[in-house]
């Protein structure tokens, strides 16, 4: 199920270093805003998304469609934490639940990880289950594959996704393939995760969008988290999956704060998240660009537009069910991504939508991406390579005029 | 007065003599050997094996040799797409396998089918994989000789060189966490030792104190690249110390030496939680594969010399016969039997159906996702429209 958070009334502090401000998100005018204050509606992810359900949830701010899980959720207070803590919480819960789960990577042990995702885990589980490795990405990824084939469930942390380019051989030729080429005799339930995307002046080599390069590899799944809620949920789902999963985190989103449920939940790996239902246009995005899109959405709403924003979350495979239903409703698509123009997720998504939903489109699909340049170090130049809210607003206006 | 430096790893003494460590020792590292060229033990101190084990080892070496011959011929007749022999390396294959326990996890490169043979993979099973039929455990997805058996603890062969080395460390890590009385054994060639994965795996294994036995089949040739163009070190054995890994060089064509060394290495790996590097010197008598003609880059008399005078089977046979454990009639009966079995296996394999179309899409993931379901549907539609363009022996 899609996770819908509706922060009403109280301002939610999105304490990240980003350029968007921390005002509340606006709902469409027909919704009643008085009932829920400051708490988050979450719906347990338990299967395919039912297309009719979303509309019901939107119009009725209080209750969902007699979903007992949501009802009980509403009564629990939940707890607030930052995105990297949510990742850690998910990881820790899975390590508690299953002794075969282990972590390996550079500086994940006593140092706690470069982004503190594994902080505190080595003292708790020992340094065999939270393993510090020498600097050789291809090799520790290979190590994880060997361990997985022998029965463990390793999580590989790339200190930065860009370094996993060194692990491409193991990821493509072995991780994605060995289940198939062995005739199903060996499974590779690994999770490969780490921060990627463009940060703040980290330089070209540390600003890679690896999802572009990996998306062709058969046998793997790719997901991108964007909120503490889905970060924890996707981490848990990825660990439990029997397939190799690559979980993309973003360097600039680790300090996002959100209130998440106390009770256990998992997000569905293959589902997209409805962030803001709307009627005029479908905006597809993921990871950090979600926030630029929502920023633009505020401006658009003020201008009288009603954008539907979907965080696609599942980069491989695409949730064409959710996306298709949206396209059939709005007939216009804007894709906003951080990948480069050539060969990015947006390029594939454009092709997939054109192929499957061509008849429903009133206008060509527009894809806003970064340029085909290495990310420059200079702050101002770096900003120009990222799609900004103003561009999104302009693109929507142009698309809706057609 | 400071005579030494406290530094991670231990005290380092100072010296006022500037001297560089030589790039190579004056003498090369010695090679452990039990039987001389005539099959006589050079010393009485070696790991004894029983008649049963010795005969089984020899029979397996013969079987491997015949299997290689017949499959090679089959490829030449166009019945197999490709084949790679292990000619000349039968002792490494069988003797190392004999020294292991069935619980030891094996990660091969691709020239070690003898290990599977020793563990009980049948000739029919080998044949099915090579012919990619319905009975192949790999479901027809891999090239010939890319065997794999989770039942026999033998990881499926993956073509890229040396990718199995870090995986071996990971498997050992898994065994260590489970505290199993078993080790991991992984094989690679002299060429594979140049890969980055070799370096990192030895390093990792040493740091993690992982029970891995790294077996290098230094067979002199990596396709057309001789070792003189592959590295400038004294083979691979000297690299062990660079990573803090105990190592030994052994005569790869001496079955008893290989058996003894691997048995000892395994004990050390498990008891002491450490990796061991074994360099087995041998020669790749056959071509790299059926796509290669090695006479183009190496002298024919060199091949002959190793094929005849340094033949591992011949040497071992002499020792066994001298012990009265085998006679010529037994051997020719064995050879005849194996040949017959293989020819029968091939006939059966060729008649067996190929894997069905659905196996093109299964096992990419645990369950069939919607995009693959769609792609399968499209493919079936295409086949229905143009059945004459579709192979008749693949069930839809």
Automatic annotation (TrEMBL), chain A:
Pfam families attached to this UniProt entry: Transket_pyr, Transketolase_C
Cofactor dependency: thiamine diphosphate
Localization: Plastid, Chloroplast
A single GO molecular function term of this UniProt record: pyruvate dehydrogenase (acetyl-transferring) activity
SUPFAM superfamilies registered for this protein in UniProt: Thiamin diphosphate-binding fold (THDP-binding), TK C-terminal domain-like
Catalysed reactions, semicolon-separated: N(6)-[(R)-lipoyl]-L-lysyl-[protein] + pyruvate + H(+) = N(6)-[(R)-S(8)-acetyldihydrolipoyl]-L-lysyl-[protein] + CO2
EC number: 1.2.4.1
Domain named Transketolase-like pyrimidine-binding: residues: 81-256
UniProt keyword terms in alphabetical order: Chloroplast, Metal-binding, Oxidoreductase, Plastid, Potassium, Pyruvate, Thiamine pyrophosphate, Transit peptide
Oxidoreductase listed as a keyword: yes
Cellular component aspect of the GO annotation: chloroplast
Domain of life: Eukaryota
NCBIfam families recorded: PRK09212.1 (NF006667)
Subunit comment: Tetramer of 2 alpha and 2 beta subunits.
Function: The pyruvate dehydrogenase complex catalyzes the overall conversion of pyruvate to acetyl-CoA and CO(2). It contains multiple copies of three enzymatic components: pyruvate dehydrogenase (E1), dihydrolipoamide acetyltransferase (E2) and lipoamide dehydrogenase (E3).
Name under which the protein is recorded: pyruvate dehydrogenase (acetyl-transferring)
Annotated organism of origin: Escallonia herrerae
TrEMBL record, chain B:
Enzyme Commission (EC) number: 1.2.4.4
Reaction it catalyzes: N(6)-[(R)-lipoyl]-L-lysyl-[protein] + 3-methyl-2-oxobutanoate + H(+) = N(6)-[(R)-S(8)-2-methylpropanoyldihydrolipoyl]-L-lysyl-[protein] + CO2
GO function terms (MF aspect): branched-chain 2-oxo acid dehydrogenase activity; metal ion binding
CDD domains reported in the protein's UniProt record: TPP_E1_PDC_ADC_BCADC
Cofactor(s) needed by this chain: thiamine diphosphate
Coiled-coil portions: none
Biological process annotations from GO: branched-chain amino acid catabolic process
Localization terms from the record: Mitochondrion matrix
Dehydrogenase E1 component domain sequence ranges: 59-356
Subunit structure: Heterotetramer of alpha and beta chains.
Family: Belongs to the BCKDHA family.
Name of the protein this chain belongs to: 3-methyl-2-oxobutanoate dehydrogenase (2-methylpropanoyl-transferring)
Species per Swiss-Prot/TrEMBL record: Escallonia herrerae
Phylogenetic placement of the source organism: Eukaryota, Viridiplantae, Streptophyta, Embryophyta, Tracheophyta
């Amino acid at each position: 199920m899609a996770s819908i958070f509706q922060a009403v009334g109280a301002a939610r502090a999105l304490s990240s270093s980003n350029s968007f401000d921390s005002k509340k998100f606006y709902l469409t005018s027909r919704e009643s805003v008085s009932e829920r204050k400051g708490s988050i509606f979450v719906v347990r992810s338990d299967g395919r998304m039912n297309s009719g359900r979303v509309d019901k949830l939107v119009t009725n701010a209080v209750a969902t469609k007699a979903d007992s899980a949501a009802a009980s959720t509403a009564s629990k207070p939940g707890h607030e934490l930052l995105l990297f803590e949510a990742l850690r919480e998910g990881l820790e819960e899975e390590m508690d639940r299953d002794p075969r789960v282990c972590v390996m990577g550079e500086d994940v042990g006593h140092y706690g990880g470069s982004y503190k995702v594994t902080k505190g885990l080595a003292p708790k589980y020992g340094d065999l289950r939270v393993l510090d490795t020498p600097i050789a990405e291809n090799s520790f990824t290979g190590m994880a594959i060997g361990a997985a084939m022998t029965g463990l469930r390793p999580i590989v942390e790339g200190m930065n996704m860009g370094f996993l380019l060194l692990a491409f051989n193991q990821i493509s030729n072995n991780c994605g393939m060995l289940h198939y080429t062995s005739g199903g005799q060996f499974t590779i339930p690994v999770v490969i995760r780490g921060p990627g995307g463009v940060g703040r002046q980290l330089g070209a080599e540390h600003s890679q969008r690896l999802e572009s390069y990996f998306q062709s590899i058969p046998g793997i799944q790719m997901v991108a988290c964007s909120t503490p809620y889905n970060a924890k949920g996707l981490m848990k789902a990825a660990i439990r999956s029997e397939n190799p999963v690559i979980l993309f985190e973003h360097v600039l989103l680790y300090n996002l704060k959100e209130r998440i449920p106390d009770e256990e939940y998992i997000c569905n790996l293959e589902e997209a998240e409805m962030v803001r239902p709307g009627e005029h246009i479908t905006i597809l995005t993921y990871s950090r660009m979600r926030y630029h899109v929502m920023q633009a959405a505020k401006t658009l709403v003020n201008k009288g537009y009603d954008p539907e924003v979907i965080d696609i979350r599942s980069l491989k495979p695409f949730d064409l069910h959710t996306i298709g239903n949206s396209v059939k409703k709005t007939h216009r698509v804007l894709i906003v991504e951080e990948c480069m123009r050539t060969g990015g997720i947006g390029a594939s998504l454009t092709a997939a939508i054109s192929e499957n939903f061509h008849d429903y489109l009133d206008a060509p699909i527009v894809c806003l991406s970064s340029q085909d340049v290495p990310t420059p170090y200079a702050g101002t130049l770096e900003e120009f390579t990222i799609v900004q809210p103003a561009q999104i607003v302009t693109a929507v206006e142009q698309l809706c005029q057609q | 007065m400071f005579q030494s430096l406290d530094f991670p790893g231990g005290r380092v003494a100072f010296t006022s003599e500037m001297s560089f460590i030589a790039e190579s020792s004056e003498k090369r590292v010695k090679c452990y050997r039990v039987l001389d060229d005539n099959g006589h033990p050079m010393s009485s101190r070696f790991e004894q094996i029983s008649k049963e084990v010795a005969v089984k080892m020899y029979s397996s070496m013969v079987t491997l040799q015949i299997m290689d011959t017949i499959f090679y011929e089959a490829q030449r007749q166009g019945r197999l797409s490709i084949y790679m022999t292990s000619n000349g390396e039968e002792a490494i294959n069988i003797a190392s396998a004999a020294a292991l326990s069935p619980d030891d996890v094996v990660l091969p490169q691709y020239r070690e089918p003898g290990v599977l043979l020793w563990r009980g993979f049948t000739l029919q099973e080998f044949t099915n994989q090579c012919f990619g039929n319905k009975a192949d455990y790999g479901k027809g997805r891999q090239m010939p000789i890319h065997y794999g058996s989770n039942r026999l603890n033998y990881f499926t062969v993956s073509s890229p060189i040396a990718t199995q080395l870090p995986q071996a460390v990971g498997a050992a890590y898994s065994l260590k966490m489970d505290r199993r009385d078993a080790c991991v054994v992984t094989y690679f060639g002299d060429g594979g030792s140049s890969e980055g994965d070799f370096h990192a795996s030895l390093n990792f294994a040493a740091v993690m104190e992982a029970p891995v036995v790294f077996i290098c089949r230094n067979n002199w040739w990596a396709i057309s690249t001789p070792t003189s163009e592959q590295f400038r070190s004294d083979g691979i054995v000297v690299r062990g110390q660079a990573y803090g890994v105990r190592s030994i060089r052994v005569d790869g064509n001496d079955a008893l030496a290989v058996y003894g060394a691997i048995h000892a290495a395994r004990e050390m790996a498990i008891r002491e939680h450490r990796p061991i590097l074994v360099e087995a010197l041998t020669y790749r008598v056959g071509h790299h594969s059926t796509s290669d003609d090695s006479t183009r880059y190496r002298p024919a008399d060199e091949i002959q010399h190793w094929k005849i005078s340094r033949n591992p089977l011949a040497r071992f046979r002499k020792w066994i016969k001298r012990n009265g454990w085998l006679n010529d009639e037994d051997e020719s009966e064995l050879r005849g039997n194996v040949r017959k079995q293989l020819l029968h296996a091939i006939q059966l394999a060729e008649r067996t159906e190929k894997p069905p179309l659905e196996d093109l899409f299964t096992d990419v993931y645990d369950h069939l996702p919607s995009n693959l379901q769609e792609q399968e549907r499209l493919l079936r539609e295409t086949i229905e429209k143009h059945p004459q363009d579709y192979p008749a022996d693949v069930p839809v």
